[in-house]
Amino acid sequence: MVLTGHCNNCHTAGYAPREGDVPEKDWLLGSGPLGWRGPWGTTYASNLRLTVPAMTEDAWVAYIKAFRPRPPMPWWSMKETTEPDLRAMYQYIKSLGPAGQHAQAYLPPDREPKQPYNQAPLPPK
Ligand code: HEC
Q1: For every residue of 2-42, which 3-state class applies, written as one string?
Q2: Of 54 and 124, more confident
Q3: Which segments within 34-105 are labelled E, that is strand?
Q4: Using a 6 Å cutoff on CB, does residue 69 contact ligand 1?
Q5: Ramachandran angles phi, psi of 120, nearest 5°
Q6: 75-85 pLDDT, tens per residue?
Q7: How does pLDDT run across 44-95, given as a tens digit for each residue?
Q8: 100: left (phi over 0), alpha (psi -120 to 50) or beta
Q9: I need a labelling partner for 81 at 20 to 30 A (CA). Which of 38, 66, 73, 112 fits?
Q10: Residue nearest atom 40 of ligand 1, based on CA coordinates
Q11: How far does residue 68's CA lie from ligand 1's centre (Å)?
């Protein structure tokens, strides 16, 4: 699920440019310096190896069913994950072990982010 649900493409630094050639020990540590900028501000994909085990398995299931993070996190797809699959995902992410740093803080739209960032197209006028 972590592979086919694209989590690594955003939550693992270098995963997309290296076409998935990143060792498992480096998975889900966050997008590192890479941000996503758009009308919402600039977001950074979180370090799931720190954020996920910080909650209980039950709290994780409830959180995913109700959360609404900023773009480009596809929460509407993720909340379709069944409860048994969410529990399996929790156990898998926890099994990778805590590592790395927390992601950089979100920046509001009026704050200029450092490079590198992906710029979302401007909304049509
Ligand atoms: C298109 C990029 C993208 C994909 C794909 C993606 N994420 Fe995210 N995710 C993000 C970004 C960016 C944030 C931070 C959003 C914010 O700051 O509000 C985020 C936030 C989250 C959060 C909330 C923050 C936290 O750590 O508690 C969770 C949980 C999460 N993602 C899990 C996943 C999982 C699991 C997958 C795969 C099933 C996944 N994401 C796929 C980009 C992505």
Answers
A1: CCCCCHHHHHECCCCCCCCCCCHHHCCCECCCCEEEECCEE
A2: 54
A3: 35-38, 41-43
A4: yes
A5: -70, 145
A6: 999 999 999 99
A7: 999 999 999 999 999 999 999 999 999 999 999 999 999 999 999 999 999 9
A8: left
A9: 38
A10: 7
A11: 10
Nearest CA to ligand 1 atom 36: 7
Examine the pLDDT at 125 and tell me if it is beyond 90. Answer: no
CA-CA distance, 61 to 81, in Å (whole number)?
10
Helix (H, G, I), strand (E, B) or coil at 118: strand
Ligand 1 atom 2: residue of nearest CA = 10
Give residues with Cβ within 8 angstroms of 73, minimum separation 6: 10, 43, 45
Instruction: Please work out whether the CB of residue 49 comes within 6 Å of at least one atom of ligand 1.
Output: no
